[in-house]
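Quarterly update from the structural biology core.
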Amino acid sequence: MALGTATAATAATAATAATATTAPYELRFDAGRICLDLLATTHPAERLDAVGPLCAWITGAGLVPPRTPLGHADASWLAGFRELRACIGQLVRGAVSTGVPLYDTASASVPSYELALGRVNEIARAAPPVPRAVRGEDGTLVRELAGAPACAALLAVVARDAVELLTDPVARAAVRECEGDNCPVVYVDTSRGRRRRWCSSEICGNRERVARHRRRAALARA
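Predicted structure, tokenized:
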């Protein structure tokens, strides 16, 4: 990736900053790829519901260095990221659920596979933001952008990540959909033996363990 992925500290900071506007749901950065983290913003409810949460996601995902000003972002950014999210979802979820492309034209909000593929490729053509190394307050080199990032440049980073994922047989084979009840989150399984079942052991995994305990307790009472 041109700009890399966010550190855990950066993601946590951005998620905390967004909580005030998206509570009780926090932004998540645990799917293993930037493009899949974008898909996760639809669950369990729309998290990109305003420009503020979108900017928090952009920072948390590592598309821009920490403290990068994004005051020029507007509603058109929301439309752009949501469109790209829908296209990536069509390409990724179709292959995960069926093993073959999903051609769904029943909903106007869901692009057909070929349309989604064309849009992702088109969005990926834009040049990503240009990073540069500058002296920080302590004298060490830190990364910042050469100029204010344009929406098209940020979208290109996510689209290129999707292209890389979809065209890498090894990475694509490791894509899984969470086995949690009513959880559509898709992630890259990098666990030993490829045995990861849930998008998050602390979220869906814990819910499954609690449900299992309750079933056992009910059987014991019966």
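The two ends are 55 Å apart (CA to CA).
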